[in-house]
Amino acid sequence: MSDNEIYAEGHNDPQVNGHAHTGTDGEMTLTVLGCGTLGIAILSGILTSLSSPNSFEPTPSPSGTNTPAAQREEDSLPPRVPSRFIACVTRDASAKRVKTALSSHLSTLTILKNENLKGVQQADVIILGCKPKNLKDGILREPGMKEALSGKLVISILAGTSIESLEENVYNCVLEKAADHMAERRCRFVRVMPNTASLIRSSMTVIADSIPPLSSSQSALVTWILSRIGRVVHLPPYMMDAATALCGSGPAFFALMLEAMADGAVAMGLPRAEAQMMAAQTMKGTAEMVLNGQHPALLREQVCTPGGCTAGGLQVLEDGRVRASVATGVRTASVAASRLGRGEQGVNGPR
């Protein structure tokens, strides 16, 4: 074992609820390149699903104008799923963090420090989880990396980084402009956007449609992987900035509203701990009702008795332009995400 190979051990052969399985032509290896917080969350979701298939019910969602209902997992199972895993990090502290977080799954996990090329060479699927600045520092331009990536599926969770930017970083041109004989040897990048709730496997993850489209098995595999950490939805690439504002920034917006509601309750005499828990549970319950098909406007009307306390509170919120302010906040975050993706600085300066 090299000094850079932090942990590697014999592996088991986990099954996936009797449905999907690794193929007879060999095991599938997934490498997380830059295994930080989200990388750990994704690995944890996959490994838990493999070792305890009944412990997690993924809920992929179709796109549509109505509140989407859950699909059956069997509808989009890939023919093969990963059974071996590699986490690539750059620091001893990061390696220790991965090992601690995934301590119950070390039999199928190898942690590599400063050996990105080795991790990619051994992988069938790569999750690009480094910071966007590491992309500019040349993480994908290491000698031999282009060859190691050849023909493989690369799932990018880099915020604000387009597929075109990734392709130009590795190949100096985008896939659509590549010659046919060159395109066949290239990897396929897929852009996805999970959010911070991945840590508790309650993410709302957006998968950008690929151009040209992925094969059915590749698409099913991407959906399966991201379904281990919550719900998924597929959207066109041009919607990714709006999705980043809604799903990526959304937890911060909701946290602000939750905090404000708790503040109001504390001002009226409720203890802080109880007020925060009650506000959080109320928000969670409301969200569950919407996810089960209830339209938010109808839900609001059901709670709002004529002449009641809810009607009075809603009137104050409407007078304070809360609806307009929240919508404008999402729009502003969307524009900022687009500008960040173009490499601009100071996107939140005076308007």
How much of the residues is beta strand, in percent? 5-15%
For the biggest β-sheet, the strand order reads 1-4-3-2-5-6-7-8-9
Q: Determine the number of helices (DSSP H or I, runs of at least 4 residues).
A: 14
Largest sheet: 9 strands, mixed
Question: Segments where pLDDT lies below 50 for 5+ residues?
Answer: 8-24, 58-67, 69-74
Query: How many β-strand stretches?
Result: 9
Mean pLDDT: 84
How do the helices and strands follow one another from N- to C-terminus? EEHEHEHEHHEHHEEHEHHHHHH
Using the alpha-carbon principal axes, give the shape: globular
Class of secondary structure makeup? alpha/beta
Rg to the nearest angstrom? 22 Å
Q: State the end-to-end CA separation.
A: 56 Å
Helix content: 40-55%
Short description:
The model is unreliable at 8-24, 58-67 and 69-74 (pLDDT under 50). The chain has 351 residues and is α/β, with parallel strands linked by helices. The chain has helices spanning 37-51, 92-101, 116-121, 132-136, 145-149, 163-171, 180-183, 216-227, 240-248, 250-267, 272-291, 296-303, 309-319, 322-341, and strands spanning 5-7, 29-33, 84-89, 109-113, 125-128, 153-156, 188-193, 203-208, 230-235.
